[in-house]
Amino acid sequence: MVKDYKISEPFFEHGPKCYMYGETLAKMAKGLQKLAKKYKIK
Known about the structure:
The chain is an all-alpha fold. It contains one helix and no strands. The protein has one helix at residues 22-38. The two termini are 17 Å apart. The mean pLDDT is 80.
């Protein structure tokens, strides 16, 4: 756990299930990264 770390709005969290791996998980991560950049989410 990182001390003094505060989450600010907007934010989103995604917890992939254990059955997601490989190319499927990589595509999802890349899509989430694009959304984070578009909406300026860290």
